[in-house]
Structures are given as structure tokens and as C-alpha cells.
Amino acid sequence: MLHEVIRFTVLDIAIFEFNVNHTANKFFSCIVMSWDFFVPVCVGDLVKTGGINQYVVQDVVSPKQLPSHLNSFKAALRSQGPLCILEHFDTGYTVLQHCHKVDMSVKEDTLELLIQVVSGLSEQLNAVKMSVFLLCKLTEILESDSYRQSIVTAPSKGSKKGKAAGEGLLQWDSERETVLQALTQLLQLDIRSLWSLSLVEEEFISCVTCCCYKLLENPTISHVKNKPTRDAIIHLLGVQVKKYNHLLGASVKVIQLLQHFEQLSSVCAQAVSVWSTEYGVKAIVGEVMRSIGQKSSEELAREGSGVKAFSSFLSELGTLVPDTMIPNISVLLTHLEGESPSLRVAVCEVLGEVLVRVLSGDGLDESGRADRDRFMDTLQEHLHDTHSYVRARVLQVYTRIVNSKALPLNRYSEVMGLAVGRLMDKSINVVKSAIQLLAAFIAHNPYSCKLSSADLKKPLEKEMDKLRELRERLQENAPVAVIKASELWAAMEPELLLTVRAELEPTSEGEQQEREEDEVGEEDDRATAVQIAQFLRVNKYRNAVRLCVLAHSLFPESEMFSSLTTLTPETLLDTLALLFKGPDQDTSEIREDLPSTPQKERAGDGGKEGVEESELKKQEMLLQYLKDTESFALQVERAIAVINTMLYWKTTSVVQEAVQFCVTVCEFSVANSLTGVRKMLPLVWSTDAAIKDAVVQAYRRLYLNPQGDNTRAKAQTLVDSLSELMVDASLGTIQCLEEIVQEFFGGGSSLQSTVVQVLWERFTGKRETSSLHRRAAVLLLGMAARAEREVVLSNLDTLCSVALGEKLTEDFLLARDSVITICNITDHVRQCKGAPFRLPQDNQLFTCLTQAIAEGVVMADPHWQSFMEQAVRLLYFLSESPDQLCSRLLQRCSRLLLDQIAEGGEMLANKDVSQLPGASQDPEDCVSLAQLLSLCGCVAFWQVSHLERSVSTELRRRRGETEEREEKAKVPSRKQAANDSSVEEELGLMGASAEDTEAELIRKICETELLAEENLLCSFLPLLVRVCSSPGRYCHPQLTTAACLALSQYMMISPSVCEEHIRLLFTVLERSSLPVVRANAIIGLGDLTVRFPNILEPWTQNLYTRLSDENPAVRQTAVTVLTQLVLKDVLKVKGQVSEVAVLLIDPQTHIASLALNFFNELASKDNAIYNLLPDIISRLSDPERAMNEEDFHTIMKQLFSYITKERQTESLVEKLCQRFRTAKTERQWCDLAVSLSLLSMCERGLKRLQECWECYSDKLTETGVYQPLLSITAKLRRGAKPQLKVQVEEFEKRLTAVHTRGLENVESPEMETKRPEGAGSSQNTTHTPLPNKGRGGRPSVSSCHDDSFVTPKPTRKSSKKAVITFSSDEEEEEEDAVMAESETPKVTTPIARTSRRARLRH
């Protein structure tokens, strides 16, 4: 009973401190009130002797005794409640003192007890301070232990210990949230009343806040899993900021956290945002911003990572509370001029967020618009920032502004122009950001869904004419001058005042009587008022004043003159003003009896003029809108032209952005948008998977994901879009598109069957469509057949009847595309390992094809040639006996041609094919003969291909089947291990021998049978030779072209035919006056080089000669063919490549790009350009070439850009220096010096340059040599080490000394007299003898003789070429236009070739 009374008294005293009159517990109450607890700065301070009435810890027990004391603590908590902390504080303090010695279970028990105490306290000050102090300090200890344990156990990830540690960490995470919640609940209560005057001591607040900031220092606090803990800390600090005056402390602590913990930038931004919004403490945003804004450049330079944290913090805070940041944003603008690019970016991002979320829309006041314009100007300035990172991020800020539709319309054109300019930036990130901004401009443009400057021209001109008419109409109706009545009155008022005063002076009675007689004559007051106003308008002030004074006496009741009751100058002047100007605008009652003013008299016309003026304003606005739209479209088209060139950049990310931009502009129907879409199509073959995927996804988005209400509509849209892309597309574009369409049909789309049905309907003509779209439909069917052959194979009869039927000759292009579609089936079949898919000779398909070819020979259709080539190809792919079909076809065509000639009146006595009258000059006959020769050449080519591919493959297949049957038929016998190996070797030899036999059989057929006398192909060869060798007689361009190409195809048959006619083909190449003939000859010779490289190798120089042809088409063909031959290692790369280098400066841009592509590909081969450079320099600097210096520098600058290795640079320095010895002219010296200056010189290169001093020192008197070498020293000095700088300066002084000494010697008279005597000897010692005469000088530094660096002269003696003229006479004794035997190059270095067996395998 006594215990219960004591318990009640303790609780009563803890709640009511002022009640000290309780008699039962008077002594205990005196003990409680005899001391106060002060929160210590350091934990150890509590054991020291304190001040008066200050609590001091008395009982610090050992760790072994702690469990028993904790049990007592628990019992007291259950019996006495939270105030038991007053008795058991020392127990909790002991845990803090021995925190590193006690077990974790003891700490956890103590933590649980303290949480219960804190959760139950609210009104006893010492108890609150004691419990909060212990809880906060224990929390800090447990947090440190947890962090330390996580670091120690991190490596042992899979061990049991690691798992146990992980469970402990997880348990502490949950307990940590409980601690924070308990503290938050306590501080949310009104505990401030416990302190005197409600002034909470700073130490108590610091104890809680330090615990919170300690928890924030955890590196994982920003992780997603710790979000509850993070939110609890922020809310706990928010309570203290709002209720306990922690605003300044929080702002200072935020800055300190950002300086030392970069990862807390987002956490601090979130905290400040919560404090300013949920707790209403907006002032903290300004405090933090001012603290950052006051940081000087020196402080920021010292902080390092703190700058990044500040930047991230500001950017994050800008996204959370942009409106709160506006009042203090001026303190941040100073950092825009600072050195830190990250801070500049942060400020720009804050401005962007403010513009997007606050200063946007039409409802801004004048101050808001001014701030918006100021911020926009600031962002525009930093589009030209010195740091690329800032430029890129500002462009991204603008992208967000445009996507949010927050950019004012009047700034579209300006910002768009700046973005287009950034496309030329050196930084890849800036270029990517600029492309993204331009795409956003197009996607969110406020002008039109279709942007085309060409389409806008006519509407713009129409509206301009309309505006001009409106202005002319207004000018006709407008008065000459309109002056307001108030302005007139202000002008006349001074003079009128003088008149009024003069009239009001006393006058004689006679004068007064005169005035009355002169001025009286009006009947009513209104007429008198009009008369007074009229006098004032014509400047009759005296008459107006007199009449006004008289009118008051005549009409005393009139309101117009009522103010004149008291006649003074002021009242009289007011009355006159009222009569002249009319009533004021602000008067509520307008008197209708006043006279009309000049403005009122024009009121009738003013209504009409007002309507016209409003129409004029509307028209001006419309015209301005159209002008802005046109300007925007022009800038978009300018951007497209630049971005299209980026599709083939080496940077993958830029290419991806360019692809996305092309998709965007195509979706908005911008002019020339299809150019980029088609240009990026070849990237489907890119080796970079990211680029290929981007292109495939782009085409899938544009063409393969159609929109529609149903499946039929979607299929129709898909076919329409693909057909538009196919129209006028090149062969390369179609091949690339085929890859994408094939992927669509192979991907199992639900639209496949419907798309195929729509395509067949278009092709067959069931739906009215143009011929171009019919051709596109059949080509798309062929692309689908590559993925699924049944699409075409099951409808082969339809193809034959529609495209290859009776109307075939009406549209050879449709027939050609249909044949290409059928060939796609054969490509699929040929990949199979089984028996080849062939159709019998009497199939309707072959009947239609041969008939169309034969009929077309005697027709002058320009598209027959392309159809014939594809048809013959199909004959050899699908027919069982294509040679027989083509033999009959040639006979039929020859007979038709002879019949045509006979019908023309020129009958032939002998109708042998070899005696066809080539002298016939009838254009129709020449065209027919040309088409027949083209057919012969095509048949010859595909016959060889048929033998080496189809026949050879079939022989191998049959041999394999035979060997397989023989193996199965063999009876098993006893075999030993040795016999097994010998049998396998024998079988291997037999297989190789069989392949060689088959290859030899094919070669023999080509050599002996194809052009045998009984073969029809042989009959046309003399005609081909005759047409090619007699251009004067056979001068028809089409005939000559066809004969040249057919001859090159005939030469593919065998080496003997090639050797026999190679001189003739090169003669045509060099001497034909027709560019198309020369171009075709180059193509034919390129094929021959691949087939017979040893025969063509001596003629290589003749091929390179065509690179300097006068016709651009020939040069383009030559560089294309040579690029393929060199890159495929068919031709050896030699000094003739200098002719390709000359094309780098070709006036035709596409030719220069082909040459650049050649060297880009050649640079991928090891040391290829490095090995060629000395020879190229010698050839280009040859005086006979007489190349311009500027052109030489341009070429060399491009070529030297491929030299990136230091060892190559060092070696080239030596080689070029040695070339000074063999150079004969000053121009060559200068070119070599310029070449040296273009190298990326390094320390080793400088050393090599100094070692070769003797090679060029005597040339330094020339300014063209001295200046380039001097520029080398300037490049080396940049960023060089001190030791290298010394060497560079010494070398520079040496160069200058020699250069100056040479100039002084020239100027000295004595040296001029001595110079002629030694001139000869100096020349002999300066120039190195030619290599073919031998040279025994000292070896170079690279142990190579000088003769290895001199371009060797041609080994073939230059004999005088025979002059052959093309005559047009028809004599049979005409000399053939063929090179003489002496002009034929001899085989010098045969090229090793793979065996025919190896080639046939491929």
C-alpha cells in the first residue's frame, strides 16, 4: 500500500513540478528538484564535477554488471513509467561509455527501453532531455557500427557470416525508423513550455540535429531501399526548422553536407523542398541559395567535388520548387561568369525550369514577361559558351522548353538559327543535343503539320498581293491630314486668350453698336454656336469672341452659353473651348445639342475605315505568320542538309540521333525529308549493330507500322508508303530496302497475308494504279519471296500472263521487274543442297521471254536492254537446257534483223551472220544491230557463269551421291588401322583429283567449245572485232557502245580470247571519243582483271590513266572500279594511286567523295598509305604535272591525317628528308617541306629531323622551305616539356641562322662574284644521281639506300606511238585502230592465283 502511494506521488511530481506540498513524498520531491540536467557537448563531460545543481553521473558500472542493471531498468519502466529514466540514467550512460565492449544484444535492449521512454514522455524537462540525449547518442553509435560492419563484411558476400551480418543490418534499418518516429512524435508536442520563456536550449536541439545529420552521412542513404529512413530524417529536421528555430543551422549544415558528401545533393534538395512546401519555411531556400551564390571562384576552385554537389543540388531544387527560387535567383547569376562549367550548367537548368513551370503561358504580367525575356537572353548567350559541356546542356534545356511549349513564338526563328549553327560544333555531345533540339522544334512547331518552303511560296505571294491592295485602298480613302481638335485648340489657345482679353476691355458706345449690328443675324443658339466654331477654324478669333459674348445676351436660357453669366476671360475661353472641341470623353452625359467637331463630321466615314483597318491588321498578322512559317521551313531544310551528312559519321551516337531526326522530319512531310530516309537505308548493312537496329526501327516506324481502322486499311497504307519509297529509287536503295522488307515478311506479322493480297491486286490491275506503282508492287512481291517463296511460286502463271503476256512489249520495265521477282525464287532454291529446281524448255515462261527478246531486237525501245539482261539471266537460272534456248534465240534474232534490213531495200547476197552489213548507216538498223550484239555478249557471259557455277555444282552433287551409294554398297571386310588410314588418304586424293578433273573439264569447254566454229557464239566475234576496230565506219554511238561491252564479255570466256583482243579493248578505252564507251570499257576491263589478273597486270597503268579523263562520268567509273580492285587485293597498290589522290580535289563533289572513301578504306589496311606516301609526293610534285600549290597542300593534308603512329611519323621524316637529295626544282623542295610540316611531329620525329640536317640545310635559303620547317617548331613548342622546349628552341635558332646567313650571302657582292665559279660543283654535289646509274653514298639512318626512295622510271622503253586516225570511208583496206605490238606492255610480275578448284568452291 505504501509502495502504491509512493508510485502515485512520483508520477504526480513528474507531471506537476510546482506541487511541492505533498506530505508523503516531500523528501523525494526535494531530491528531484535539487538538480538540473544539462545536455553536454561531449559524452565524457557528465562524469566530471559540474556546476551548482548540475547533474553528474555517479554510478558507471562494468560491462559485466550491465545486464542486471538493464533488468532493473525494465522493471522500473514497467512499474514507474517513463520517469524512471531519472533513476536509471547512469545505466544508459554506462552503455554509451562501454559501447565498444558490450554485446550487440545489450545495445539493442537499451535502445528498445529508450524508445519506450521517449514515446511516453511529454511534460518532465529533465526526463525529456536525459532520454533524448541517450537515444540520440546510442543511435549514432549503432549507425557507426552498422556502417563499419557493412564495410568489413562486404567481400564475404556468399558466406554465412555475411548473411548474418546482412540480417543485422536489415534489423537496424527498421529500428532506425522507429527511433526517428519516436523523436518526431516527441518534438511535435508542445514541449517548448517546459523551458523558461519557451526558449529551448541550443544544446538540446543540436543533440537531435547532429543525430539526424549523422544518419544522412551514410553513403547508402540516397538509395531507394532507404527512402523511408530518408523521409523520416527530413521530417524530423523539418519540425525543428519550423518550431525550434533551426533555420540558420539547417542552411549552414546543408552547405557543409554538400561540400563533403557529393552523393547527398538530391537528398538535400528534397529536404529543402519539403521544408519550404510542407512546413512553409520558404526562407530556407533563399538562405541556401545566398550561401551558394556568395561562394567566390577561389573557394569553388578549392572545394573540388563540392562544386559538383552544389550544381546537382541547384538543378534538383530547380525541378522541385522553381517558383520559390525566383526571388533569390539573382544571387546565382554571378556564377554564370565564373570558371566552373558545372555551376553555369546548374544555373541555366534552374532558369529553364523557371521558364517551363512558372514563366510560361499568355497570362504573365509585365514583370513576368520582363523576367522571361531576361532569362531567355541569358540562355541564348550560353549557347556560345566556351565549354562544350555547357553548350550541350543549354541545348538540352531548350529542348525541354520547346517540348513543354514554353518558348515564345517570337523567339522560334532566332533559337532555331542558333541550333542549326551548333550542328557545326566540334563537340560530339553538342551536335547530338542540337539534333535533339531541332527534332523537338519540328515535332512541336506551332506553324503547320507540313513544312515545305516551296509549298508556302504561292500562298505567301497571294497574301502579300492582298495586303498591298488593302493598303492602297486605305491610302485612297484616308484624309490628307487628321489633327485632333484638342491639338488644334492647344495651338490656338495663347493667341485666342489675347484676343479675349482685348475684347473684354471697355469700349466706346459707337464701337459697341457696330459690333451688335455686324454680328447679330442668327435665329437660334445652335446655329450661332456652329458659326462661332467656324470662325475659330478659319482663325477669325475676334469675330468668334464678339459673337460668343453677344450670344449670351441673345440666348440667356441656352445651356451652351450658360457659363457666361459671369463674363470673365476664363469663362469665355471655356465656352469657346466647349464649342470648338465638344464635350470631354469622360463626361457621363453628352449633350447632343452641341455643334459638330471635325471628328464628328468624319464619324460617318470612320466606321467604314475602322472595318478596313481591322482587315488590314488581320492581313498583316496572317502575312507575318506565313513569313515566320517560311523562315522556319527554310531553317529546317538547311538543318536537314547538314544532318544528312552525319548519317555516315564514325560516331555511333551521332548517327543514331541523325536517324531519329530523319524519321521526325519525314513524319512532318518536310521538303527533301525522303532524301535523308533513303540516304540512311544503306546503313542496314552496317557492321555496328546499334546503327543497323536504329535504321531498321526507323523504317519499321515509318513504313511497317501503319495506322488504320482495320487490317485492310493498314495494309493499304503500308503498301502505299513502301511504293512511294520504291518510285525512282536506285538499284542500291532497292537492295537495301529488300533487307528490311524481308525481315518484315519473315517476322510473322499479322498483316502479311493482307499486304500480299493488296500487292497482287495492284500488280494485276484490279485496282486502278499507275505503272510506277505496279512495278513497285511486283518488286515488293519479289522481296517477300525471299522470305517466303510460295508468295510468288504459287502465282507464277499470273506473273507470266500479266507482265510477260501479249502486252509485254508495251511495258518492258514491268516485264523486267517481274523477271527480277521470279529470279528471287531461284536465289532461294539455289541455296538448297538437293537437286536444282528447273523448268522444262517448253514452259510458257520461256516461250514468253524468248518471244519478247526476239521482238524487241528490232524495236527501238530504250528499256529493252535492261529487260533482256534480266531475262537471259532467268533463262540460265531456271531452264533445263539454257544453251539450246539461247542458241535458238540468237538464230531467231539474227533472222529478224536480216529481214528488217531486207525490207529496207538493202538485200544481201550472203545471209551468213558474219557477213551482216556493218556499213549500213540506217539508224534503225544500227540500233537493232547494237541490241543483237548486246544479246550475244549477255549470252556469252551467262554461258560461262552457267558452266562454272551451275554445271560445276551439279557435277559435284552427282559425284557426292555416287560416292555415297558406292560406300553403302561396299561389303564390310576386315580392316586394320594402317589400312584404314591409307584408304582414307586414297579417298581424299581421289576426291581432290575428281575436283581437278571437273575444273579442267569446265576450263576446256570454255577454251575450245564455246567459240568453236560450229557454235553460234563464234559467228558474232568477228563482227564485234570489226565494229570495235573501225569506229570511223561504225560511228553510231549505241552500236559502238554495245560492241565494246559485248567484246569484253566475250573475252571472259577464256584466256586465249582475252590475250588476243586485250590490245583492241585498251585502244578503245584510250581513243574512243564517246564517254559511255570509255566508261563501259573500264567496267569490262575491271571484270577481266578479276578473272585473268596475270594478263591484265601489265596494263594497270592504262587503267589509272582514265582517272584523269576529261569526262566526269568516266572518272567516276574509273575510281569506282579501281577502288573495288584495290580493296579486294586484285590489284597491287603502287605509286599510280597518286592519280586517285588528285581526285580529292576534283570539281565534281561526288567524285571527290569517292576518292575520299577510297583512302578511308585503304587506311584500314596495315601501313598501306604509309608505304605509298613518298611515291605519291614525288609524283604529285613532279614539274611535268604542274600542280597548283594549294591543291597539293589540300591533298597532302588529307593523306597525312591517316598517319597516326609515332613510328610511322619518324620513318616518314627520314624518307622525306632523303627525297630532298633527288629533288631538282625549288617547287619540289617546297612541297617536301610542306609535307614534313603536315606530320604530327613528336620528340622522336624532331630527333630524326635533326639527324637528316644535311639533306635539306642547303635548301633553307628558300622561304618556301624555311617557313614550313619553322612551323614544325611552333607546333612542338605547344605543351612540350621543358627539356623538349630547349631542343626545339635550339633547332629553331639553327634554322633561322642558316636561313639568314644564306640571305646575307646572296646580298653580299663578294659572294655574288664567287658564286658562279662554284656553281657547277655545287650542283653536282647537291643532286643525287638517278638510281639506275648506281650510287655509293653513305647509308641513311634507317639503313636503306637513297635509291630505294626514288620513284623508279618505267622499265619499258618509250617508243613513238603510231598515229592512227579514225576514218569514215568504207574501204575494206582500212587500217585497224589497234595498238602496235611495240605498245603492248609485257608481263613483269605475274600475280599468284588460286586454283580453279578453290574458286569454284565459292
What Rg, in angstroms, do the CA atoms define? 50 Å
**Approximately what portion of the residues adopt beta-strand conformation?**
under 5%
The biggest sheet amounts to: none
Helix share, percent: 55-70%
Q: What is the average per-residue confidence, as pLDDT, rounded to a whole number? A: 76
Shape: extended
End-to-end Cα distance, whole Å, is: 111 Å
Instruction: Give me the secondary-structure category.
Output: mainly alpha
- Number of discrete helical segments: 63
Could you give the count of β-strands? 0
Low-confidence runs (pLDDT<50, min 5 residues)? Answer: 1-33, 155-167, 517-522, 585-595, 597-604, 906-920, 974-978, 981-989, 1303-1377, 1387-1402
Oligomer: single chain
Word description of this protein:
- Helix 34 packs antiparallel against helix 35 and helix 53 (1168-1180) packs parallel to helix 55.
- The N terminus and C terminus are likely disordered.
- The chain is mainly α.
- It is extended and about 135 Å long.
- Helix content is 67%, strand content 0%.
- It has 63 helices and no strands.
